[in-house]
Amino acid sequence: MRTDVPGAAVTRGLTVDASDARLLVVTPLRLEYLAVRRALPEALVLRSGMGPERARAAAFRAARMQASAVAVAGFCGAVAGDLLPGDVVVAGEVRGPAGVITCRSGPLVAALAAVGVERVRVGTVISAGHVVRGGERSLLASAGAAAVDMESAWLAPAAAGRPFVVLRVVLDTPSHEIYHPATLSGGLRAWRALRRAAPALAIWAGAHPPPAAAGRLSPSEVAPWLEHLV
Prior knowledge:
The protein is α/β, with parallel strands linked by helices. It has nine helices and ten strands. Strands 5-9-8-6-10 form a five-stranded mixed β-barrel, surrounded by four helices.
């Protein structure tokens, strides 16, 4: 069996650390997974893959995993013009095709301050089923969005009623989109920023009961949340 890091296994395309933990973090891409895994060795980290379909499949699996708090972490595209590569976006809400998911962002913002992350924006994250470019970014900005990704709305049901946050780091911006040469240096900045910000998730999760106290979710508790993925 192929393994990406010690203690991790690949099952049906999903990379996941095999142990139970207080915090479950879902990361879409391998680079994101490596940044978070390095920063949070005690967390349960799952790599979902990119896009809605893979995110939906990962959410089915993650909803049944034992953890007291669930986070999505990774990169995003900025739609707000004043965001820069490496800036952290904490979702106050996530908007997707099925509606709006509200996230309690305050405790995570405080945790980010505690680990010394200064450039943090709380805002709306839009989840789209495709890479958003050009004028579409302007439309999303005019609708009040801060950033866009391709997974968070479909991963949200993984929380299954548990505390849930979304932490994204800006990879590209309206002026330097993902295929622009400047994105190469922005990508390195974003990866370092994600690794630096990830420990804040452990602080945030520490405010919630450990899995032993929270208990493993029963099938009846998980089922209503999985209905959102059907």
